[in-house]
Design a protein that fits this description.
Layout: E1 2-10, E2 16-25, E3 29-33, H1 40-47, E4 55-60, E5 63-64, H2 70-74, E6 77-80, H3 93-103, H4 108-121, H5 137-149, E7 155-159, H6 167-182, E8 186-190, H7 194-200, E9 203-208, E10 211-216, H8 218-221, H9 235-242, H10 251-262
Bound molecules: adenosine-5'-triphosphate.
Adenosine-5'-triphosphate binds near residues 37, 39, 40 and 42.
C-alpha cells in the first residue's frame, strides 16, 4: 500500500506545487490526470523518494520516504520516465535491462534470469542483442518498462507511456500494463490520454493546481465537466452517450449495449 498523507511540496523558488494531498493506492491501475502544471510529476516523484515532502508524509509498504534512500524505495516503486530513449546508454537490449539488477549485486545467473523474465513480461524475447536505438517507439517504451521491472518493484509509475505512439504500439503497451496488473503490480499511470484512462484505469485521481479535485471511479470521473480541467471526453464515450447507450469502456461494450438494448 502506498499512503500519501497531507502532502505539501514547496519548491525552492516558493512555488506551492502540492497543497495537502491525501491519497492511497494498492494493487490497482490508478490514472493520475490533470492540466499541465497541476502537480502530477511532483506527486509521482514523492512515491520513490526522488522528492521529499515539505510537509506531510509518504509511506510505501510501511517505509516512510523520509527515512529511506531512493535506491531502497526504487526496489518497491519503479519509475518509467517520459521519453525513455534518453535513458538508454548500453549497446544491447540485454545489457540495458541487466544494468539495474547488476547494481543490486546479484550473481550473473540471477541477473540473466531477471533479464529474461523482464523481457518476456514485455514481449521482447528475441531482442536481446539488438541495440536499443534500433527499436520502434512502442518497443522502446516496453524496454523502458523491462529495465524497471528487472528491479522487481511492486508498484510502477508510468509517465505518459503511450504519448507519441501509433495505435498498434499503444496497444502493445496497454497489453503489457494489463498483464502486469494481472500479476499483482500496482500501477500509477500519469497521462493526458483520456482514451487510455477509459480503456485501462480502475480509478482516477484528478489534480488541479496542486490539490486533489477528484478521486473515484472512471465512470464518475467522465461525468465531470472535463473542459474545466483542459481535458476531453473520449470520442467513444461521446458517441455512446449521444445514442443513449450510456457509459461504455470499449467498442465491444458499445456494440453489446446496442444489441442488448434492441433485443
Ligand atoms: N524544480 C522546480 N522548481 C520550481 N517549480 C517547479 C519545479 N518543478 C515543477 N515546478 C512547478 O510546479 C508545478 C507542478 O509541476 P509538475 O511538473 O508537477 O506538473 P505536471 O502536472 O506534471 O505537469 P505536466 O502535465 O505539464 O507534466 C508547476 O507550476 C511547475 O512549474
Amino acid at each position: 500500500m502506498i499512503e500519501v498523507k497531507n502532502l505539501w511540496h514547496i519548491y525552492e523558488n516558493g512555488k506551492e506545487a502540492l497543497k495537502g494531498i491525501d491519497f492511497k493506492m494498492g494493487e490497482e491501475v490508478v490514472a493520475l490526470v490533470g492540466p499541465n502544471g497541476s502537480g502530477k510529476t511532483t506527486l509521482a516523484k514523492h512515491l520513490n523518494g526522488l522528492l521529499k515532502p515539505t510537509k506531510g508524509e509518504v509511506i510505501v509498504d510501511g517505509m516512510n520516504t523520509m527515512e529511506h534512500t531512493v535506491a531502497e524505495l526504487s526496489r518497491v516503486v519503479g519509475y518509467v520516465f517520459q521519453n525513455p530513449e534518453h535513458m538508454f546508454f548500453e549497446e544491447s537490449v540485454f545489457k540495458e535491462v541487466a544494468f539495474g539488477p547488476k547494481n543490486l549485486g546479484l550473481s550473473e545467473e540471477e541477473v540473466e534470469e531477471r533479464v529474461r523474465w523482464a523481457l518476456r513480461a514485455v514481449n521482447l524475447e528475441g531482442y536481446e542483442e539488438r541495440t536499443p536505438y534500433s527499436l520502434s517507439g512502442g518497443e522502446k517504451q516496453r524496454l523502458a518498462i523491462a529495465c524497471v521491472l528487472a528491479m522487481k518493484p511492486k508498484y510502477l509509475i508510468l509517465d505518459e507511456p503511450t504519448t507519441g505512439l501509433d495505435a498498434r504500439s499503444s496497444e502493445s503497451v496497454v497489453n503489457v500494463i494489463r498483464k502486469l496488473r494481472g500479476e499483482g503490480h500496482g500501477i500509477l499511470l500519469i497521462t493526458h490520454d483520456m482514451e487510455l484512462v477509459l480503456e485501462l484505469a480502475e480509478r482516477v485521481m484528478l489534480l488541479n493546481d496542486g490539490r486533489k479535485a477528484f478521486d473515484g471511479s472512471v465512470e464518475e470521473f467522465f461525468s465531470l465537466n472535463l473542459h474545466d480541467y483542459g481535458l476531453e471526453k473520449p470520442e467513444l464515450l461521446r458517441i455512446s452517450e449521444k445514442i443513449g447507450a450510456g457509459f461504455v469502456r470499449s467498442v465491444s461494450e458499445l456494440i453489446e449495449a446496442l444489441v442488448g438494448g434492441s433485443r
